[in-house]
UniProtKB/TrEMBL annotation:
The lineage of its organism: Bacteria, Bacillati, Bacillota, Bacilli, Bacillales. InterPro entries: 2-thiour_desulf. This is DUF523 domain-containing protein. It comes from the Bacteria.
């Protein structure tokens, strides 16, 4: 069995983003890992019960809110738990999640002002996965992810 990777569903082109679109990662490594059967796709926001499309939300303090102040925290945290359960159930060894998302961001998130500005930080799902020992990379860190994958394969 190949080392499994939890992956943001939108990076596989699934149309699950807040705007109803996907965000296909066109890096050839992605296509290879998919062909090797490594990916376990998850969209935490959809899994948490939010519709597609949905209003964009950002992290503000300890909450996840829309620009109009609607509080989505509960759905985001439910989605994070479901992503963690999926990671455990499928025995994934690492995660590659969409950078800057309030769920999936692992280095940066939008800063809560809805101005397009980002700040260092992590989304709810990335944070929960890390808390439980999973390594999380963004689609902008595929070299690091590839190195980690190679290390895990060597250890088998
Ligand atoms: Fe993609 Fe994650 Fe947002 Fe779902 S929650 S659309 S997987 S970035």
């Amino acid at each position: 069995m190949p080392v499994k990777i939890l992956v943001s569903a939108c990076l596989l082109g699934q149309q699950v983003r807040y705007d109803g679109g996907g965000k296909l990662c066109e890096d050839p490594r992605f296509a290879r890992w998919q062909a090797e059967g490594r990916f376990v796709p998850v969209c935490p926001e959809v899994a948490g019960g939010l519709p597609t499309p949905r209003p964009p939300a950002q992290i503000r303090g300890d909450r996840v809110v829309t620009e109009q102040g609607e509080d989505f925290t509960e759905a985001f945290d439910r989605g994070a738990e479901i992503a963690l359960q999926a990671a455990r159930a499928h025995g994934v060894a690492l995660a590659i999640l969409k950078q800057s998302s309030p769920s999936c961001g692992s280095l940066f998130v939008y800063d809560g002002t809805f101005s397009g500005a980002k700040r260092p930080g992590e989304g709810r799902t990335a944070a929960l996965l890390r808390k439980h020992g999973f390594k999380v990379f963004g689609e902008d860190q595929l070299e690091e992810a590839e190195r980690e994958l190679a290390r895990l394969e060597r250890e088998r």
